[in-house]
Amino acid sequence: MAGRLISKIAICAALAAPLCAAAPQSAPSLEIAVEDAAAVWSRPDGTGLANDVVRAAFHASGIEVKLRVVPYARCKRSVLSGDVVACFSMSRDPSLNGAVLFPAMPIFVCYAELIQNPARPLRAAHLQDLPRGTIIGTVLGYEYPEALNAAVKSGAIVLDEAPSEEHLMRKLAAGRLAGAVVNVNESKPLAFLSAVSHVPNTMMRVERIGTLPSFLGFSVKHPKGAWALEKYESGMRAIAGNGVLAAITRRWTESAAAFVRAAGPPRAPRAP
């Protein structure tokens, strides 16, 4: 009796084995923090050029990503504390040495540019030549080129930090800032930033103060930080080689250009 029972169990196990082997395996997943107000790169609804690139890179390595959409300052704090495995988009800065791991390939490259409201032009054409104490707007928590830090240390400028570049644009248009530093590139031109901020497309570039490669930054404190970096780098190499990265960038660049066209011609700024 016992022998027959064992035999039946063995037969059942043998029949079930192929079914178990064929059962789909769920892909590993990671939660990653992303900025909530950097359209076209990362938008409040969790979409954007950078968001698509990060998802595609991890997907190419067999990992699915859940995005935690938060203000950039919180994104940065979360990766520094190890609360999340990674945050984007981050740029290299001496203050991050030993705390954040950066991959070889950036998500995109942008340029930090000093801009002005032509209705109230700056009194110099270069950051370091501005009258002492000039108020320049920046975003809370953002990394900027060393030229900006040097101007702060010398006393040439005083920073007025806002939650996002859209806030900066509105303050500049209203005459509440002498100038502002914004991050732009081909996919996110100044005209797009004006349109998405609902301000006249008359804000003008004064000078480019530096180049900022922008990355997915990985937490040194998070137990999966180094492992996630390795998987991400493998995926980035894959999507750079198969055209996916270029296609994502092209799609969002075209989307931003269409948004600017729909916004119409430049309008004169209103008096504050």
Describe this entry's structure for a reader.
The N and C termini lie far apart (94 Å). Strands 1, 2, 3, 4, 5, 6, 7, 8 and 9 form a nine-stranded mixed beta sheet that branches. The chain is an alpha/beta fold and 272 residues long. The protein folds into two domains: 29-108 and 214-260, Periplasmic binding protein-like II (D-Maltodextrin-Binding Protein, domain 2), CATH 3.40.190.10; 110-212, 3-Layer(aba) Sandwich (D-Maltodextrin-Binding Protein, domain 2), CATH 3.40.190. It has eight helices and nine strands.
Helix and strand topology:
Elements (H helix, E strand, L loop, with lengths): L1 H21 L6 E7 L13 H12 L3 E7 L1 H10 L4 E5 L9 E2 L6 E9 L17 E6 L6 H9 L2 E6 L2 H9 L5 E6 L5 H8 L6 E16 L5 H18 L1 H20 L9
Parallel strand pairs: 1-2, 1-3, 6-7, 6-8
Antiparallel strand pairs: 3-9, 4-9, 5-8, 5-9
Helix pairs in contact: 2-7, 2-8, 5-6, 6-8
Mean pLDDT: 90
Number of helices: 8
The radius of gyration computed from the alpha-carbon positions, rounded to a whole number of angstroms, is 24 Å
Q: Give the DSSP E fraction (strand runs of 2 or more residues).
A: 15-25%
Largest sheet: 9 strands, mixed
Span from first to last CA? 94 Å
CATH homologous superfamily designation of the largest domain: Periplasmic binding protein-like II
Unreliable parts: 1-24
Quaternary organisation of the protein chains: single chain
Q: What is the architecture of the largest domain at the second tier of CATH?
A: 3-Layer(aba) Sandwich
Spell the H/E element sequence: HEHEHEEEEHEHEHEHH
Structural class: alpha/beta
Domain count: 2
CATH class of the largest domain: Alpha Beta
Under CATH, the topology of the largest domain is which?
D-Maltodextrin-Binding Protein, domain 2
Overall geometric form: globular
Fraction in helix: 25-40%
Number of strands: 9
